[in-house]
Structure formats: structure tokens, C-alpha cells
Amino acid sequence: MTAASGPIIVFDAMCVLCSANAAFVLRHDRAGRFRLASMQGEAGSALYRRFGIDPANPETLIVVEGDNLLRDSDAVLAIWAGLDRPWNALAALRIVPRKLRDPTYRWVARHRYRLFGKRSSCWIPTAEHAARIL
Questions:
Q1: pTM, rounded to two decimals
Q2: Are 52 and 68 a contacting pair, CB within 8 Å?
Q3: Contacts for 64 with CB less than 8 Å, ≥ 6 apart
């Protein structure tokens, strides 16, 4: 799969945790499966709006592939499943029921700035990874 056709991860580039996760994905997705878009950017906010999510206060990252949307813990598990070994083994956490996973995810998402901090400017990828950012 080429980077031009892979799933798109839409994340909060102002969030320290979210941008660290974006950098982690770029490092451990050597096949270039995922593309990334920040919710603060035009492409990311358009995807949020397309799926009825307020880009100003999404409280979730999303993974979009075509017309399919994954959000909350399902999105995180899909990302882990698409990463290189050994990280893709974390997708085994799918055995935990969504009714337990999603409330935990949503609590962290709601408190992400307080728990992990907020950047003073959006995260910028390295030149090496710039082609995978929308």
C-alpha cells in the first residue's frame, strides 16, 4: 500500500501526547501505510466535519479509510495493528470489550492537555516524513 492510498489518522497537533503518538507512528510504520492530518489543518478539520465531529473540540482521534471511520479505542487499535513488529502485537487488546476501552480512552482524551500538556505551536514533522502529512 502506498502512502497516497493508506488510512488517514487525524490527531490534535497541539496536544503533547497526540503529537508524540504521531511521531511514533511515523517511526514505526516503515511501510508508510498511514498518512496523518492535524485537526487544526484544513484536511483534518474537513474530515472531522465530514463525520459530524466538531474539529474545535473533538475529544477523539480518528482513522479514516475511504468512507470508513474508526474513532476512540477502535482507532488506536487499528493504528497499532498497522505498525511494525513488535508494536502491532498491542492490537491484541481488542479482546478488552469496547464498553471498557472507550470510557478510558474518552477520559484521557478529555483531560489530555491537563495530563500531558499543550504545545504553544502545532507539531511539525521532520522533512523525511513531510510527504505523509496532509
A1: 0.86
A2: no
A3: 7, 8, 10, 47, 51, 70
